[in-house]
Amino acid sequence: MTTPGAISGATTLFDKLWSEHAVCELDNGETLLYLDRVFLHERTGSIALQSLHAAGYGVRDARKVFCTMDHIVDTFPGRGDATLMPSGTDFITATRNETRAANIRLFDVDDPNQGIVHVISPEQGLVLPGLTLVCPDSHTCTQGAIGALAWGIGSSEAEHAMATGTLRVRKPKNMRVVIDGALQPGVTAKDLVLNLIARFGANGGAGYAVEFAGSTVRDLEVEARFTLCNMAVEFSAFTAVIAPDEKVEAYFQGRDFAPKGEHWRDAVEHWRSLRSDEAARFDRELHVDASTIQPAVTWGTSPEQVVSIGESIPYPDTFAEDHRRESAQRALAYQDLAPGKYIADISVDAAFIGSCTNSRLSDLQAAAAVVKGRSIAPGVRGVVVPGSRRVKKAAEQEGLDQIFTDAGFEWRDSGCSMCFYAGGETFGAHQRVISTTNRNFEGRQGPNTRTHLASPATVAASAIAGSFISAEMLAESESLAS
Ligand SMILES: CC(C)[C@H](C(=O)O)[C@@H](O)C(=O)O
Ligand code: SF4
């Protein structure tokens, strides 16, 4: 075991965050990292807490551990403790009992701050720039958007994290993804990240911590940056980070758990040092021209199987690698799609707006702007699930719930809902769902359900048209028809 030395020379943002939390280097090449926060949810957190308890260990510092109910609880309005998952009640009860016993703050179903773990942690200032945060959930990388070092772990790592306030980690390499250029109207962070994964592959970030940089990223609002970093795990990256800037400072000002007064000033001074040095070297650098990107939708069962709205489903033999050809064939069979078919000619059965990728207020605003004054196509089912109870309340104050329900959408309580079948909610077998979520794997939204990922505006427009369409194309087709 050696003590880590001070870092010298030009350094990346990720390396700064890492070295600020390195307790020591271990003989096996791993680093022991100090953890500022541990977040839990009732699906995996209950398991970690129960097994920590059974092993006779306590939580080292419960003030740094937080837990929410999001994955298993129903999102039907007035849900109470209901869950469609067969053993769901056991998870809910265990979460309550174990968090109470360990003195951990739980955002329970009726708590006004309850919501999806990755939505509520920044919303309340529980994660801040420069902090380390782990959670037994793969989309914890979302929090890198504000300059935190946040990554998903397994349940047994969560036990170690809670018992010791540290974790052993093997350091990934540094990748920078530089995104420059102005986004075309209607193109969002979701379209950006889907295009990135399509171009460099769902495995493109494996072994790396990714820093998103460039003028396009700087121009994104903080909530859109969460969308970008949320899908870093779908790019197989260890995590993603974005240097905090004045937008991030404004975002945190006044949040419940954000530092106040003199502590705020000290914190901000530190945040301003959290950026890659000019001469910092990255192990790999990718460049993306954002101005060429169009609204995107996935056609297959991997987030790399993407087309722009207006294109057609690719022929499997156009893929160079064997595994991509095979995966395309299998995806086409599962999705019941024929190569060569125009994506705009495919009808949808359902539309889902929600998940830690796209359920924040700005996402709901973007979808509502499309939905306003229009109605869902006959036979299409639409569901909107705000990411947190706070988002729900803010949306209702602006009348967004009314816009959605007037158009025929269901307006739900917050949680993971139909992002993931684990909670038992589904649109049903063979239903084609356009969804603002992050995973389109086989069975992700229920047995034999067909998922197509897209941005909130595209999902809203497609629900109205009853087929895949972007908001811009919907407006154009309506003006031609009138
Ligand atoms: C249940 C949980 C462990 C899982 C994850 O790790 O991401 C879920 O949130 C998901 O999105 O698949
Ligand atoms: S919303 Fe979906 S992706 Fe996000 S944590 Fe919940 S299940 Fe996972």
UniProtKB/TrEMBL annotation:
GO terms for molecular function: 3-isopropylmalate dehydratase activity; 4 iron, 4 sulfur cluster binding; metal ion binding. Transmembrane segments: none annotated. Its cofactor is [4Fe-4S] cluster. The keyword 4Fe-4S applies. Its EC number is 4.2.1.33. GO terms for biological process: L-leucine biosynthetic process. It is an enzyme of class 4 (lyase). Pathway: Amino-acid biosynthesis; L-leucine biosynthesis; L-leucine from 3-methyl-2-oxobutanoate: step 2/4. Keywords: 4Fe-4S, Amino-acid biosynthesis, Branched-chain amino acid biosynthesis, Iron, Iron-sulfur, Leucine biosynthesis, Lyase, Metal-binding. InterPro entries: 3-IsopropMal_deHydase_lsu, Acnase/IPM_dHydase_lsu_aba_1/3, Acoase/IPM_deHydtase_lsu_aba, Aconitase_4Fe-4S_BS, Aconitase_4Fe-4S_dom, IPM_dehydratase_rel_enz. Residues 15-466 form the Aconitase/3-isopropylmalate dehydratase large subunit alpha/beta/alpha domain. PROSITE patterns: ACONITASE_1 (PS00450). It catalyses: (2R,3S)-3-isopropylmalate = (2S)-2-isopropylmalate. Heterodimer of LeuC and LeuD. Catalyzes the isomerization between 2-isopropylmalate and 3-isopropylmalate, via the formation of 2-isopropylmaleate. This is 3-isopropylmalate dehydratase. It comes from Microbulbifer agarilyticus.
